[in-house]
Write a structure and sequence with these properties.
By secondary structure, the protein is an alpha/beta fold. It contains seven helices and eight strands, in the order E-H-E-H-E-H-E-H-E-H-E-E-H-H-E. It has a single domain, classed as LmbE-like (Rossmann fold).
Length: about 240
């Protein structure tokens, strides 16, 4: 039986989440996947932090010289900082794992990089990718985040959520074991405009409609999720763990 949990503003006011950590593979994933939700939590007193495991770009610039790749990555990093400021994220952290090549490095190294930031922040909630995404970096990020948050005695993380990233999650092979089936819908009607502003900060990553990662595409995407649960705009998640 499909469980639908709708987290509204009233509930968030009753239960303050102190610290949130967003663990993503590349810059812009955080805005696409949970930008409106993060802005909403922050608005209600929570603190949010974001860890980017990679700086992106390099897989699309393999034929370019190193100085050009670095210049483009520096642009993307500045865009990420600007988007974080718009959403209200307190601090961002950058690792430098190779774009679209997370499977070529030690999985343990990726896990440890998440653990370092997690142990510093001590978050209550983790938001990260979905395991069934087409993007292999996203899949590995999910597995590494889950591994880094093993439910041991002193673990601070009480909730883990997977989000969807347009042009990645819905393009994955729709098999039962890896299909994105959301059971948490968060009303972002009040913060959707902030999500759009943060996405606009990523000028180098935006595409033209009908590409999913476009301004109009994001609006349609958010309206669709909202329509599924009687809201104007919503973001959808899979609840992975919830300790009570």
């Amino acid at each position: 039986m499909k469980l639908i949990v709708r987290l509204k503003l009233k509930r968030m006011e009753n239960k303050k989440i102190n610290k949130i950590l967003i663990v993503v593979a590349h810059p812009d994933d955080e805005v696409l996947g949970c930008g409106g939700t993060i802005a909403k939590y922050i608005k209600n007193g929570s603190k949010a932090y974001c860890l980017f495991l990679g700086r992106g770009k390099s897989s699309r610039l393999e034929k370019e010289k190193n100085n050009i790749v670095k210049k483009e990555q520096d642009i993307l990093e500045k865009e990420a900082q600007k988007a974080a400021k718009i959403l209200g994220i307190s601090k961002v952290f950058f690792e430098n794992f190779p774009d679209q090549k997370y499977d070529t490095v030690s999985f343990l190294d990726i896990v440890k990089s998440i653990e370092r930031v997690k142990n510093k922040i001590k978050p209550d909630i983790i938001f990260t990718h979905h395991q069934g995404d087409l993007n292999l970096d996203h899949q590995i990020t999910f597995k590494a985040a889950l591994t880094a948050c093993r439910p041991l005695k002193k673990e601070t993380v009480r909730e883990i959520y997977s989000f969807e990233v347009p042009s990645s999650t819905e393009w994955g092979t729709p098999k039962r074991k890896n299909y994105f089936v959301p059971n948490v819908f968060i009303d972002i009607s009040d913060t959707f405009s902030k999500k759009v502003r943060a996405l606009k900060a990523y000028k180098s990553e935006l595409r033209e409609y009908p590409y999913p990662r476009s301004l109009k595409g994001i609006k349609v995407f958010s309206q669709k999720r909202g329509m599924e649960v009687g809201l104007k705009y919503a973001e959808a998640f899979e609840l992975i763990r919830w300790l009570r």
